[in-house]
Amino acid sequence: QVQLVESGGGLVQAGGSLRLSCAASGRTFSSYAMGWFRQAPGKEREFVAAISWSGGSRYYADAVKGRFTISRDNAKNTVYLQMNSLKPEDTAVYYCAAGRFPVRVPGGYDYWGQGTQVTVSS
Asked: Whose CA is closest to 22, among 2, 43, 42?
């Protein structure tokens, strides 16, 4: 069992930056791939980024590539999402998730956090 708690969301102007954190409970964090997803009002949950258990492999959605960076610190049981050059279309609730593989579909993850709101004003 893994429990995930996101933090770091908030209101930021377009062009600004935020860093999201996702703290995991349990001693098996380092064995899980981690993903970030987001969901805007009226839209489906969409893939943002994923990272392998070791951090050696990282994957990004085209919409965020070059602006967002996913990383993890297994000693701290935490995964991060650094978001730069934010756009109004990045506004959504952001969720972290844990699973066996760093896949791009929500169904590939077993555990989810409660989400953190990110709002980007124009």
From this structure: 2
- Whether the Cβ atoms of residue 90 and residue 118 lie closer than 8 Å to each other: yes
For residue 71, the tally of other CB atoms under 10 A from its CB is 15
CA 106 to chain centre: 12
Q: Which residues pair with 111 in a beta bridge?
A: 98
Closest by CA position to 81, among listed 22, 13, 3, 33: 22
Token pair recorded at residue 41: 């009002």
Residue with tokens 């009226």: 42
25-39 residue pLDDT tens: 977 888 999 999 999
H-helix or E-strand spanning residue 40? none
